[in-house]
Design brief:
Elements (H helix, E strand, L loop, with lengths): L1 E7 L5 H14 L4 E7 L10 H17 L6 E5 L8 H13 L4 E6 L7 H6 L2 E3 L8 H20 L6
Parallel strand pairs: 1-2, 1-4, 3-4, 3-5
Main location: cytoplasm
Pfam family, one: SPOUT_MTase
Catalytic activity: pseudouridine(1915) in 23S rRNA + S-adenosyl-L-methionine = N(3)-methylpseudouridine(1915) in 23S rRNA + S-adenosyl-L-homocysteine + H(+)
């Protein structure tokens, strides 16, 4: 399986990079995982609603330019579907079984994802009703993807 994590913003925190690198290394036997970092749109603190939409639209265009038509897209969003680790594992297993070898997880910037990205998404995923920094979501996501492959192989790790 080819997995893409398409994300807005550059990861700066060393401790997050180290965690992500560790799980990417662990994922090597299971899947090819690429992280595509796209620049966030520069914006002042106090944006109007229309300015916020414009920022999300520009970031969304960058995201969509990196996703091919044959890719199954899962958008991470607060209003997405909450799933257990086992449910995510079953989803990935089902996608692989039915020939969807390209899966992209999309993480928006601090304002979220554009309507266009949400329309392109085949599925949505939420890890919590809480808001997390999008940089931290990368680490959480890559750990859960690793956990999903371990679950699907019946290997120890998941408790």
């Amino acid at each position: 399986m080819n997995i893409i994590i398409c994300t807005i913003g550059k990861l700066k925190e060393k401790y997050l990079k180290q965690g992500i690198d560790e799980f990417l290394k662990r994922l090597t036997p299971y899947a090819k995982v690429d992280i595509i970092e796209l620049p966030d749109e520069k914006a002042p603190e106090n944006l109007s609603d229309s300015e916020m939409e414009m920022v999300k639209q520009k970031e969304g265009e960058r995201i969509l330019s990196k996703i091919s038509d044959d890719t199954h897209v899962i958008a991470l969003a607060i209003k997405g579907k909450m799933k257990s680790s086992q449910e995510l594992a079953a989803d990935l297993d089902r996608l692989a079984t039915y020939g969807k070898s390209k899966v992209a997880f999309v993480i928006g910037g601090s304002l979220g994802l554009s309507d266009e990205v949400m329309k392109r998404a085949n599925d949505t995923l939420s890890f919590s009703k809480m808001t997390f920094p999008h940089q931290l979501m990368r680490l959480i996501l890559v750990e859960q993807v690793y956990r999903a492959f371990r679950i699907n192989r019946g290997e120890p790790y998941h408790k």
